[in-house]
Amino acid sequence: MNRWCPFFDMIAEPLDHPHVRYVNSIYELVSTPMRDGVNALCLRRTLEGDFEEVIRHLHVERGITTLERDQLLTLPVSAAGKIAIETMLRDQEQLRAYGFDPEIDCVNGYIGHDQQDLMRTDVCSFHVDRATDIADTYLCTYAGASSIGVCHEDVILRAQEPTVRARLLADFGGADDERFIEYLTENYYDLHYDALPNARTFRFGVGHLWRIAIDYPGTDVPPCIHRAPDPIDGEPPRLILIG
């Protein structure tokens, strides 16, 4: 039976939540239609294996490093590390069998995320993903801090905040008209949000495989507003699947 749950990694028993749905298999994850306001599906899992050991053997530079199958299989890890690698590759292969192309990434901070003067538009800001055709985003955190979601009723478009909008209009150098709307879209300013006081947020958790709705023409549900965790100096890298 499907169940509803906003705080998968924070409480033992799920609570009713209108936008997140619990599924029981990867097949259900990829095939269940999103409707009636549901814009996130989650396959909750407890994974075996030592994913932190995999990270320790990677020695990645700052930023995002995409990990290839051969690279992972040649890491000198223990049996527990091999189980972790097999799990990630199996997730990737199963999603590819359904026609998707997810990456396995090691995220060691984000380059330039703190160098945005006009308006923050990096992945650590609450945002929606966008496509020109039918698509969804698949995401799993295997190690490290997980992504965070927020109810779309509990946010405000950042470009609508008076101070921010005035700053953007000054940079645009024109009137608040259709051309300004195009400017917002071209610079991705229309994809980012701020959470309102007492906003209902939820963590994606570690090990759980998610499918979240994105913004595309004709979508049946609002896109899922989410963000990556802010990088913290000295914090270990994250290991994720995304696609």
List strands and helices in order, with pairings.
Elements: E1 3-4, E2 20-23, H1 26-31, E3 40-43, H2 51-56, E4 63-67, H3 69-73, H4 79-97, E5 103-108, E6 136-143, E7 148-150, E8 155-157, H5 162-172, H6 178-186, E9 193-195, E10 201-203, E11 209-213, E12 225-227, E13 238-242
Parallel strand pairs: 2-3
Antiparallel strand pairs: 1-2, 3-11, 4-5, 5-13, 6-11, 6-13, 7-10, 7-12, 8-9
What attributes does this structure have?
8-stranded mixed sheet; 6 helices; alpha+beta; 22% strand; single chain; 243 residues; 3-stranded antiparallel sheet; disordered N terminus
Report on this model:
With 243 residues, this protein is α+β, with helices and mostly antiparallel strands. It has helices spanning 26-31, 51-56, 69-73, 79-97, 162-172, 178-186; strands spanning 3-4, 20-23, 40-43, 63-67, 103-108, 136-143, 148-150, 155-157, 193-195, 201-203, 209-213, 225-227, 238-242. The chain is globular. It starts with a strand and ends with a strand.
Q: Largest sheet at a glance?
A: 8 strands, mixed
User: β content, as a range?
Assistant: 15-25%
Overall structural class, as computed from helix and strand content, comes to alpha+beta
Give the SSE string.
EEHEHEHHEEEEHHEEEEE
Radius of gyration: 19 Å
Report mean pLDDT, rounded to a whole number.
Answer: 90
